[in-house]
User: What shape does this take?
Amino acid sequence: MEIDPWVWWLIGAAVLGVGLVITTMPELGMLAVGAIAAAVAAGAFGGDAVVQVVVFAVVSTALIAVVRPIAARHRAQRPQLATGVEALKGKQAVVLERVDGSGGRIKLAGEVWSARSLDTGRAYEVGQEVDVVDIEGATAIVM
Assistant: This one.
C-alpha cells in the first residue's frame, strides 16, 4: 500500500502544527501552511515532487517574509488602551486638602489619593482642579 504524496505533506503540516503549539514559534505555523499548500499542489493539481517542494518553499518563505515584520512591529507597539496607573496619568483631579511639595489629598477617578506638587514651590488649594503628571507608589504627582 503506497501513501499519496499529499498525505505526507498533511502529516508534515500536522507535525509542524504540534511543534508550533509546543514551542510557540510562529515560524512553524507558517511552515505548516506551506506544507498544506504543497499538499494541495500534489493532491488537487497533481504536481510532481519538484513542484511540491517549490510550492512549499515559496509559500513558507513568503509568509515568513511578510508576517514576521508585521508581528514584530505589533509586538513593539505600546498598548493603545492604558490600564492601571498608566491610565491615571494625564487625568484631572480635584484638590480635597491643600497640596504642596510635601503632600496633600486629591480626588482622582472617584478615589481619594495622596498627592504632592510637581513644583515644590507651588501649592494648590481646596477645590482647584489639577492635572496628574505621574504616579509614584500611592502618591499622585500633580501640577
Helices lie at 5-23, 26-43, 49-76, 85-88. Residues 49-76 form the longest helix (28 residues). The beta strands are 92-100, 103-108, 111-117, 129-136, 139-142.
